[in-house]
Amino acid sequence: MRDAAPTETVAHLLQVLGVPLTEVGAASVNGRRIGREALRTTLIGHSSALEVEARERPQSNSGRFLLDMHLGTLARRMRLLGLDAAYEPDGDDSSLATRSATEQRELLNRDRGLLFRKTVHDGALLRSGDVNAQLDDVLSRFAPHLAPVDAVPALRGAPRGGGRRRCRGPT
After folding, report:
1. Cα dist. 123→18, 23, 145, 147 in Å?
2. Using one digit for the tens of pLDDT, what is the confidence trace for 83-115?
3. What are the structural domain ranges in the chain?
4. Beta carbons of 91 and 68 less than 8 angstroms apart
5. CB distance 144 to 105 below 8 Å
6. Burial level of 28, CB count in 10 A (0-12/13-18/19+)?
7. Quick one: which H or E segment has residue 152?
8. Does residue 129 surpass a pLDDT of 80?
């Protein structure tokens, strides 16, 4: 239980409590339901009850994802499934939030603080450190269209004879 200031918004209260808005669906303030789009503008006032719902699954999305430095293996697996998964191994929080907004990409990460930034387009907090659980979470949460990459044609083009071909440069 926490007392809120009358001028505090629902979004601010949730974030003070450690809940990124990317994880929140609708909410109710004293029984009055508000949508996600109103979380940043609805004042708590002298409310006595705040109810919060989790995001619905599948979550609407652009089909374009941005992953931070801790999710390189997940980015590779998503790409093998044909997903548009940009990976920023050197990106700081500010550049990730800005890129998420400018490219309309869902930001996937394990850092709550980054998801608190207003500039983040949308995203998800991946709670597990296990890449299989992370991939399951992304697939169930966003239900993206999959177009798996077929590695076999690339293998068919390998040179025969087991060795490397010598290439001569321009003569």
Report:
1. 16, 8, 17, 21
2. 999 999 999 999 999 999 999 999 999 999 999
3. 10-54, 64-143
4. yes
5. no
6. middle
7. helix 152-156
8. yes
